[in-house]
Amino acid sequence: METMKTNCPICGEKNVMDVVTRTENIPYFGDIMESLVSCTKCGYKHTDVICLEQKEPVRYALTIQKDKLSTRVVKSQTATISIPMLGLKVEPGPKSISYVSNIEGVLNRFQDAVKTALNLFDDENSQKNGKNILKQLDEVRVGNMHAEIIIEDPFGHSVIAHPEVDKRKLTLDEIKSLKTGFTTFEQNEIES
Ligand SMILES: [Zn+2]
After folding, report:
1. CB within 8 A of 91, min separation 6: which ones?
2. pTM of the full predicted structure?
3. Which residue of 53, 79, 107, 111 is most buried, as measured by CB atoms within 10 A?
């Protein structure tokens, strides 16, 4: 683990930002570097995960079971993560974050997202759907229901690190249909 101080780009104060970097070896994957910057003055925080090796476009699928909850998961900014059986999907966008977690942590993130949605949409249908998904997430967590978790990453910077994971290269068509989180403009699409 390495720590250094730098200037904060957000509040402009000099030598107030802590930068902590750490490398970790993820089984079946390789080395990654995690970085955390936090400003002691304005409180700005940002985490990032960088994959240190060149990778191929990849798709991982794993059936979630109780004994697999501690399986390491790296989700990069460019990855799409989904549990199709529950209709849950997080696609990359400008605010996407990358993280290192495990299957249980991913389930928690989905749970939080559904709870947030329940607070935002108070119509009967959304409430019913949301509560139903929460119930199913609990069933998956305790092992009463077997759902598949899928990560698709056109840059290959993500992994579900389990020996039984179903791993294969993404096809070109699949890559084209995925979002990358980058804003791109094609010249001929901009018409005045
Ligand atoms: Zn600051």
Report:
1. 80, 178, 179, 181
2. 0.78
3. 79
